[in-house]
Structures are given as C-alpha cells and as structure tokens.
Specification:
By secondary structure, the chain is mainly alpha-helical. Helix content is 71%, strand content 0%. The chain has helices spanning 11-30, 33-49, 60-80, 96-112, 116-127, 132-139, 143-162.
C-alpha cells in the first residue's frame, strides 16, 4: 500500500480479520471442534445477511461475538426440545413395532427394579429433563443425593439392559 493512501472500508475484510477470535470463542462455547466450525459458519452467514445493520466504525468483533453467543444459546435451547436418535448398521432389519415393544418391555422391567427413590430421580432428571437443583428441591434432598441416586440408577439400568 502506498504511503498516504487510505484503504477503503471493507465489511468482508473486517469479517475475515475477526474470524480467528470467533473460532476460538466457538470452540470454548461448544467444546467440540466440529460443532464450533458449524457455529462459526452459521455466525458468518448471519453476519453477511445482516451486514446492512452493522455500523462501520463500531466494534465488529463485539457485534460478531454477541451474534455467535446468541446462535449458540439458541441451538442449545432448540436441542433441549429435540430427541436425537442414532441408528446402527442393520437397525432397519428388525420390524420397528416389534423391536420397540421388546425394548419398552425391557426398559420397563429394568425401571421397575429400581428403588422408589431412584425411580423418582430418574423420572425428574432423565425423563422430564429437570435440572438437578429443581429435582433436589422437589424431593427435599441435596444435589449430592440427587447425583448419587441418579448415578446408581443409571449403573443399575445399564447393567440390566446389558444382560
């Protein structure tokens, strides 16, 4: 660049300059390299689609960081309401209705074998998705007790389902 020549503002150049910090922040938020990459791409796409809202001369790094954080929290909120299912090879070779009845029967038997206090904790935390603190308040016990009961219940269920 020649001395005395002022470089024109470029939204895209500023965006590219901010990417390394955004990538690090995305990794910190997600704790997963692939999820961080997806989050960064979503953030960049959103930034490009909303570049008309950005005011040149203001802090683009802060603008993008806020956008990235909001996208991450929106994803977390959405994921709380979505059940993810992984299929293994050959999963479709068994009649789905028959398989689900057998699995349900086995899970019901294993769940029934838990102590009443373990069943309550599993129902509140694992099935209803309530936070440990809320489960502890509902059952009038400490969070440590909730964690202990849940750990023992999961261990018992895993052992019974593996047998």
């Amino acid at each position: 660049m020649e001395e005395g020549k002022i470089m024109a503002y470029s939204f895209e150049n500023e965006l590219i300059r901010c990417m390394p910090n955004l990538q690090r922040y995305a990794c910190k938020l997600t704790r997963d390299a692939n999820a961080a990459e997806d989050l960064l791409q979503d953030c960049l796409a959103r930034a490009l689609s909303r570049q008309h809202r950005f005011e040149p001369g203001t802090n683009m790094q802060a603008w993008l960081t806020t956008m990235l954080k909001n996208l991450h929290f929106n994803n977390l909120q959405r994921d709380r309401h979505v059940t993810k299912v992984e299929l293994w090879d050959g999963a479709m070779s068994v009649d789905a209705a028959q398989m689900s009845r057998l699995v349900f029967r086995d899970v019901d038997r294993a769940f029934s074998s838990l102590t009443p206090s373990q069943r309550k904790v599993v129902k509140l935390v694992a099935i209803e998705g309530r936070p440990y603190q809320e489960a502890a308040e509902t059952l009038n016990v400490s969070i440590g007790t909730i964690r202990s009961r849940l750990c023992r219940a999961r261990e018992r269920l895993n052992n019974l389902m593996a047998a």
